[in-house]
Amino acid sequence: MDILDYLHWRSDLTFDERPYNELDAVAFCALGYEILDEVFKDKKMMTLDEVAEQFFMMHDETALKKRLSVSARSYEILKAMRNTRRYGSLIVAGYVSEIDHDLDLQFSVMTLIHKGKWKAVIFRGTDDTITGWKEDFAMLYRDEVLAQRKAVEYMSEITKDESLINRLFGKMDYYVAGHSKGGNLAMYACAHVNESVQKRIKRIDNFDGPGFRQEVWDTPSMKNILPVMRTYLPGDSFFGRMFINDSEKILVQSNKNGLMQHHLYHWQVNVDQLIRTDAFEESSDKAILKLNELINDHTEAEMQEIVESTFRLAETLGLIKIADVTKVDLMKAVKALKELTELDSKTKKVLVELVGVLLNLSF
């Protein structure tokens, strides 16, 4: 059973009857991948029912079924939520979507408001293009990437001036969540808001998003919110195990293997929560061990060159999506790597090892 099954089971129950839980956060994160730029072109706030009405007026469902992007099935989430007691009356506000290829920026977020009770801030993860992951890997050598800065600005802005919202609903609690890079942004943003706001954050759900360097976890602000933070990881997790993560970790079942486990639609659920598993797969352990070796053996400047070279290699191999990694022949990758003549032998060796890590995880 997957997240759509949960929506069919529980969408008839209000949040008063069945409080917000981790599966609601999963559903919101899946919904967060939908491109709603046109829907919010002239409006700033709508009920979820109104969002769905506008969206399906603009899009033919037959065409939606043919989409191949990471948002391919997000319309199914929206369709399952519309006209339901649990989700239909939620107010969707603060929708932001920014993409700047020159700045390696991909950032999107929205807020769902449950009248008089809470606001759920949902950060979108990276799309499924190879280029979309470049900012994520830049965390290997940057103290802060642009999307993290944007996340802090967004969280600070919506909590700084809540006069209209407070008049309508009163002061509310916060639930913050994100999948993939969105999970990292959720944790990062909550660690950089003031303490009075942190006290109103009831839970932070990170779904297979990367962690941080140790110095981030050591900050007093991060320690303040650690008790309400949870990280959910599938057995073959790779991206969610990058860097250090001091939060509570929950291992969950997926019905796929390798990198495909990263997608939320493959995570298994029961009526109340994600189904747990006991341990990581051996392939995940090996991949992360090799990645950590690569990080520890190189300076930040070297890691920058390695990351930039990795994405140049991806372009040479014609990789468009993450799933395309599974189709790459290792010998073809090595040959393409040799053609990048501007790289020194040490960097080439590291790239061969990194490609091998991803290929081993993919099969």
Descriptive notes:
Helix content is 41%, strand content 15%. It has 363 residues and is an alpha/beta fold. It has 2 domains: 3-280, 3-Layer(aba) Sandwich (Rossmann fold), CATH 3.40.50; 286-362, no CATH class. Strands 1-2-3-4-5-6-7-8 form an 8-stranded mixed β-sheet, with helices on both faces. α1 crosses α2 (22-31) and α15 runs antiparallel to α16 (345-362). The longest helix is centred in the last third of the chain and has 18 residues, at 345-362.
Summing up helix and strand content along with how strands pair, one would put the structural category as alpha/beta
What integer is the average pLDDT?
86
CATH topology of the largest domain: Rossmann fold
Percent in helix: 40-55%
Tell me the major beta sheet.
8 strands, mixed
**Could you give the order of the helices and strands?**
HHEHHHEEEHHHEHHEHHEEHHHH
Number of helices: 16
Give the termini distance in whole angstroms: 24 Å
Radius of gyration: 20 Å
Please give the CATH architecture of the largest domain: 3-Layer(aba) Sandwich
Output the strand order for the largest sheet.
1-2-3-4-5-6-7-8
- Proportion in β-strands: 5-15%
Q: Would you state the CATH class of the largest domain?
A: Alpha Beta
The tally of strands reads 8
| Unreliable parts | none
Tally of individual domains: 2
Shape, principal axes of CA atoms: globular
